[in-house]
Amino acid sequence: MTESRTQEHVLITGGANGLGFALARAHVERGDRVCILDRDETQGLKAAEQLSQGHNDVLFFRCDLTDAADCERVMAQLSETWPGLDRLYNNAGIAGSVGKLEHLTEAAWQAAFAINVFAVARMSRLAIPMLKTAQRGRIVNVASMAGLLSASHMAAYSASKAAVISLSETLQKELHKDGIKVTVACPAFFKTQLANSIPPQETKARASVEKLMANGKLSADDVAQQIIEASDTGQFFCLPHRRERWLWYLKRMSNRALHKVMLAHQP
Fold first, then answer.
1. CATH code, domain with 34
2. Is residue 3 included in any domain, yes or no?
3. Secondary structure (3-state) at 89
4. What is the residue-level pLDDT of the chain in tens, covering all 267 positions?
5. In 127-195, where do the E strands start and end?
6. Using CA atoms, how far apart are residues 50 and 267, in angstroms rounded to an integer?
7. Which domain holds residue 260?
8. Which of 48, 54, 80, 168 is deepest in the core (most CB within 10 A)?
């Protein structure tokens, strides 16, 4: 850790693997104190041990982010352990069911919104009192380019991520006077374990998503670094992927043009 940087206390949901783990590793390397939350206790403990490297204090709490009482318990425990909180990454999320809207069940919609939206709002609400004690608190919500570009066959996922973007815009306004900066990250496909959250019976969908992620040009570490840099500077939008960033600009200029491009490339 350089002398010019103050050590931060960083909380990351879904930190046991994928992007969450990459974010945790980057902060550990910066000399920050990190706490990761995950519902997979075995993987979470393994990740914390790997991140600690025998000299850095990394906390792990098992937490079901869809359970309000569990989230309140964890945040109460964290507030007793740490003097404050500098940065919250609402990273945990699922892809959920893939298919046309007419085939998506109520359960599929509830599952997507429970973790992708309600958990983000819940954790932000619980963390804000601790973030207000920091001189420069940060909230980073991990959404997706699907929230900006809304591909077909992923209505529940796209709608939930669009909700995260809208929630982030609201938080940006509400927390401005408290000095808390908000960043919303909208990555496209990169190598992670997101496809594991697609129901196993949806074999074609899982195979398609896994192929798209495998062909991604950015790694989880690449995406994590861009997100951290955006949060450091208080940048609101972080769009790590160049092609999708161009498509978003195209949408803002001409939705009709974007519609034609996306129809031509959809699976």
1. 3.40.50.720
2. no
3. strand
4. 444 678 999 999 999 999 999 999 999 999 999 999 999 999 999 999 999 986 678 999 999 999 999 999 999 999 999 999 999 999 999 988 888 999 999 999 999 999 999 999 999 999 999 999 987 899 999 999 999 998 888 899 999 999 999 999 999 999 999 999 999 999 997 776 665 666 666 676 656 666 666 666 899 999 999 999 999 999 999 999 998 898 888 887 777 776 777 677 665
5. 138-142, 181-185
6. 38
7. 9-265
8. 168
In a domain, 141, yes or no: yes
In 10 A of CB 118, how many CB atoms? 16
Q: Which residues pair with 13 in a beta bridge?
A: 37
Positive/negative CA dihedral, 265, 258, 219, 137: negative
Residue 4 lies in a domain: no
Which strands sit side by side in the sheet containing 58-62, from one edge to the other?
A: 58-62, 33-38, 9-13, 87-90, 138-142, 181-185, 237-238
Domain annotation covers residue 131? yes
**Secondary structure (3-state) at 246:** helix
How many domains does one find in the chain?
1
How far apart, in Å, are the Cα atoms of 90 and each of 75, 95, 122, 212? Answer: 14, 15, 10, 24
Which of 61, 157, 190, 248 is the catalytic position? Answer: 157
In the annotation, is 157 catalytic? yes
